[in-house]
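Q: Structure tokens for this one, please.
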Amino acid sequence: MNKITRNTFVIVGAAMFLSACANYDLASIQAMKSKNSFSNGLKLEYLNLSEEEIGEVDWGNADIFINKAERAANGEDVQPEVLSDHYRLPPDSIAGLESARFWLTSALKDGAAEKVPYAAAHAQAMFDCWVEEQEENHQPEDIVRCRAAFEAAMAQVDAALMPAPKPMAKPMVKKAAAPKAKAKPKPVVIPGPFIVYFDFDSSKLSTQGGKVVTRAVRAAQTSGAASLTLKAHSDKAGGNRYNAILSRRRAEAVFAALRSWGVEADRLKFAAVGEEEPAISTKDGEREALNRRVVITLK
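A: Here is the predicted structure, written as tokens:
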């Protein structure tokens, strides 16, 4: 394509985009008064992302972010990107993104939008930025930038939502009181399970894995769970015996992390099942990130 033709194509493309976005008045969206700080934060964050995409001549993603900004400004419930909608994501990126989305949505359910609205809005926008860049997968520096911004924002969110967990005290035994009419017990909602993923052939707890453990501790304290059960797995790359040993080391790593938060050893149980019970069925010898995990279940 010669220079004149290429320049003509870019100009025509820009004109088509501006025409397609004619229904969006960016200045009006910017000026709209959102119903709360979180919605306002989302509006501003998505407008910033749309401007970045316009600068990169990425009309499709710019249109997505403009749409999200307008919906947030109108007070709609704007959710972080759903990974199943992004069929071009590299398979080895999905486990990390799934864990990150669960981290974000858990914090939003715990009141992050009310307690730290702008940090929560920044985290959601940066998660969407990470998904978009990861799906395109041709600008590694942008993938790193969006992911780092997401994790930094989530650190602020976690700090606001979760003071350092205190050691879990054993329940006090009280003397039986005079019998009273029994009321119907309210059903107890137990959160989880919490899944800690591991790198290939590793039992080292990653930064992300440590955050999952911390959320499990907080959930155990909040729900009053009496025990935490760990089930450790590996993928099918490697021998059966080796994978059994590796899965046990992963269980021990999570066990040690929970103990460091003050969870008593007698409240912890773990089982290492190696390559048995995979989350994703694979052929023998095949790597699979979603199978390299320890599942923490509260009871």
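A few notes: The chain has two domains: 21-161, 194-298. Confidence is low (pLDDT under 50) at residues 1-22.
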